[in-house]
Design brief:
Elements lengths: L28 H10 L9 H6 L3 E5 L2 E4 L4 E4 L2 H4 L8 H11 L11 H13 L6 E5 L2 H16 L3 E5 L8 H5 L16 E4 L15 H15 L4 E6 L15 H12 L2 E5 L23 E4 L10 E5 L1 H4 L18 H16 L2 H18 L7 E6 L4 E5 L10 H14 L1 E2 L6 E4 L7 H21 L4
Parallel strand pairs: 3-13, 5-6, 5-7, 7-8, 8-9
Antiparallel strand pairs: 1-2, 2-3, 4-10, 9-10, 11-12, 12-14
Helix pairs in contact: 4-11, 5-11, 8-9, 12-14, 13-14
Length: 460
Amino acid sequence: MRQTAGAEVDLRKLDEREAPVMVTESPGPRSLETWAKETQYIGPGLSGSTLTSRLVLEEGYMSYLRDVDGNVYIDFSSGVVMTNPGHCHPKVVQALVKQTEKLMNVHDHAVPNRWALCKKLAEITPGRLKRTQLYSGGTETVEAAFRLAKSFTGGTEIVGFWNGFHGKSLGSMGVDGTGFSKGFGPLAPGYHRVPYPNAYRPVLGAPFKTDDYITFLDQYIDNCVVGKLAAVIAEPIQGAGGTVIPPDDFFPKLKALCERRECLLIIDEILTGFGRSGRMFAIEYSGIEPDILLMGKGMGCGFPVGALISRDEVIEAMPFAKPSGGSTSFGGNPMACAAALANIEALEEDGCIAHAAKVGAKMLERVSAMKDAHPLIGDVRGRGLLMTVELVKDRETKEQAKEEGKQVFLKMLNKGVLTITPAAKLRFAPPLCISETLMNKAIDIFDEALTEVETECGLR
């Protein structure tokens, strides 16, 4: 860790052996000053990470972030899993600058880079998925998928999963399983939530057996779905739920259930897509073809863009396919298409996806090996560069160590690593370009922070 005037450091030339660079306590005085000014004018409902850190960030490049006090952090959040190839990746920046000088928005009129993006998405997604509708963000994309599923099947009801997160609009909150929807009711009718396969916190008996679960889900649909089922929506790896990875046979058998029930399987890759899991899309690990696949977050390297992709006969269903049935004011604008195309090219040309698989496997191995030395670690889960370390007060009861997690978050911040969640489920999601050296530095800092918190708690 280098102690110097961080504002003098060129992030593009920073020797990773000298990172992170901490000039002040975090948050520093300039961050706190700007934060105090902003809170007079901005709404209070910001993210937990933002409210806890009170950082004011002004520059980022690849795996680094710099705040207004000059502190340079190793980023272990990727802007909440968005800047997959790295902050301000030169290819994406150049594409956006070039497009800004030509055309920024023409509603949903065709532009040259839109068909190129849709063609590219058809090439990189599984199976027969080749028809894309573009949107401006995740929850808008989820809502569109629900309209499409209802159009194709004639069904009216949707099943989602506990600990799943799909957005904050009315329909997407109907399948919220994280608890976010509490207090915003009543929710829209026709939405259901059932347990998701979670080996660490099993609900339907341990060990989890996929065949037994599918039998339960069949019975749930028979007893609780009062109309025709339109779709089941699931994340291939739960993000906000804490990197929960189901058994290998779960999605093939869930897909078979959907086919028997004549409903669609919507796979939400808004968080896991574009290389995050070590594959272009995490559903590739299961070998199945979804009926609808959703994209966002890591699609535009931080620029707002979302998309759903499906096969011909599904996406052409009425009334979704009628004029304005699938359109949106900002979706598929020339800027978003430029960013998304450049983002995909950067991932492919830089070898980010294979790199994420390699570095992620080493990170998972290393953090898993730390469990014996740290009584607060209850479980470690990860795939690619998406990881959760779940902290517990007691390994037998599995009571979550929420306050301890917050303290680990703050200590890591003061040592130069920004993570996602100041909570019991510590989520690590660095840019896919992160070097093994920087990854190990960040994990060293996590080890130190966790040791300090355990000592303060009397666990050492």
